[in-house]
Amino acid sequence: MANETRSPTVRRRQLAGALRELREERELSIEQVADQLDWHPTKLSRFETARRAIQPSDVRALLDVYQVDQADRDALLVLAREARQRDWWQAYGQAIPEGFKVYLGLEAAVSSLYIYESEFIPGLVQTEDYIRAVHRATLVDAPDRDIEQRVTVRLTRQKLLTSKEAPKLWLVVNEAVIRRVVGGPDVMRAQLERLLEVTRLPNVTLQVLPFAAGAHPAMDGAFHMLRFEPTDPSVVYIEYHAGTLYLEKAQEVEQYAQKFDHLRATALSVGDSRALIEQVARDLHQ
């Protein structure tokens, strides 16, 4: 698996941030810089928000405008080359939604990952049969080949949890997640057993938000909060039927951090969460 020093997606974010800072330090607008280079302002804007990959030649042109010294110039050009390397998941092509490709690159470099899920077991801890059942339910018209590629991608992602630089993972799942029988009783029972197994990892914490908790701040849906070390800004990822949303403004991220703090304070303790999962698994034997 990739890590922070190798993830092209993270390198692209770092490069975008560095280029934006250079422009702002020189008190130049996007329009002014674009005019000097005979670019459309949108091109530079996309570079600075990491929405478009940047060629090393374009980086050189920007560094000329910003009159960057040789040492910083060399470091940024190395970063530009690393940002253009291929991520591991690119071999799976069209089977991965475009908006999710950014997430895969960020996830590979994350230091801490906080997830609230309201409908299904989070992907990093799903069993193969559960993954397949979820995809068949949500991707009604997808060919079998695409389904199987997505299963492979998700299983590959899971290696992150036991890698040398495994991130801290904190999961809060709605009680409906462990009670909804996905794929039939046998598949669901195996999935709950997998959950119990994963919670024994030192870097994984799992809590269940019980129905008895009533209304809560995340009733508007699931979200992931990704944190990086040492200085990269955190990102909140939200997925919906028609696409994905990435929130990076400090105020927005802080709102979701507070939301997650409330969820884990309201959820069952780790021990009580395990006991509930064990009970639901036993019930599936009957």
TL;DR?
This protein has 286 residues and is an alpha/beta fold.
What is the secondary structure topology, with strand pairs?
Layout: H1 8-25, H2 30-37, H3 41-48, H4 56-66, H5 70-83, H6 98-107, E1 112-117, H7 128-138, H8 144-157, E2 168-174, H9 175-179, H10 185-198, E3 204-209, E4 223-227, E5 235-240, E6 243-247, H11 250-266, H12 270-283
Helix pairs in contact: 1-5, 2-3, 4-5, 7-8, 10-12
Helix content: 40-55%
Number of strands: 6
**Total count of helical runs of at least 4 residues:** 12
Cα shape: elongated
- Which class best fits the helix and strand makeup? alpha/beta
Structure description:
Strand 4 (223-227) and strand 5 (235-240) form a beta hairpin. This protein is elongated. It has a 6-stranded mixed beta sheet, sandwiched between helices. It is built from 12 helices and 6 strands. Mean pLDDT is 88; it is low at 1-5. It has 286 residues and is α/β, with parallel strands linked by helices.
Name its key features:
286 residues, alpha/beta, six-stranded mixed sheet, 12 helices
